[in-house]
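Data availability (excerpt). The following record was deposited with the supplementary files.
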Amino acid sequence: MRQSLFVEMKLRKFIRKVSTSLRYRWLDLRLPRLGTGSPKLALPDIEGTWPSGKDDSLLFFTVADSVYLDRYGRSFMASLLMSHAKMPALHIHVYNPSPDQLGLLNRLVTYSTLKLSYTWEQVDLQHLDKERKVRYYYSVRFVRLAQVFEKTARPCLCLDIDTLMVGKPSKLLERVVGADVCFYARFKKFGVNTKLLAGTLYVANTKSAHSLTVAVGQQIQRFVEQGLLLEKLDQLVIYDMFVRHRRKSDLAFCPFENKIIDLDFTEHGLIWYPKGNSKENLLYRRKKQWYEKEFEKIINEVV
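Predicted structure:
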């Protein structure tokens, strides 16, 4: 009985992957026709301050809605500040922030040890269910990443806000030397929506990386504006655009291995990357709570 249930679950998962991949391919062909009218879900204007500077220093980038900013923003920022990075540069984009959250970010801009810039958007998603709202958040971040990349000519590391930088960024920079783009690859998995983890994406300050980043942002925007918030849309598009660009250019790729993106929260990892229920892992929770306490000390230093 258990074996038959296991087989049935595997079969359903397989069918879901196939249907998601096929639907994406079909809609990609149909989008030129679908996009002739006004957008069904127009992206709002951006407020705030874009990052500045054109050099080779790494820019960290993350996004969050108001709930995730409260839940993970403090530990995320503290982990960057305590990672021995020399005055880390961070850009945060927030969906529907509260006045208090904007006030906190504005205070942090004055903190001399962190080069912080932030933008936000007020977007009405009340007509969407919870799942589709989440898809909007994790997909549109790459539209915003492309916009950030346009504003500042420097390498960017896009991270989920629930990740923790527990090691030295210098190790990551050693790993990405010569690469245009890096991510945690799972190429052997079946289905174009499972080929990578989109929560950690490095793009270098190169023409090839710029072209890929812009293409990803434009493709996601095309889908979102037509209300096509597919499951794992970001992973579908990144992998699709990645394959297309590698075919026609000299795009240099470097995969992040487990020593860089650590899903098991070991002492050797550089970035702790929680997925699903692993957010309840005791090691992750304790580390997150420790960073939150350190953040409160930082806040007390800010005038």
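Summary of structural features: The helical segments are 2-34, 66-81, 99-109, 130-151, 169-175, 207-225, 233-248, 282-301.
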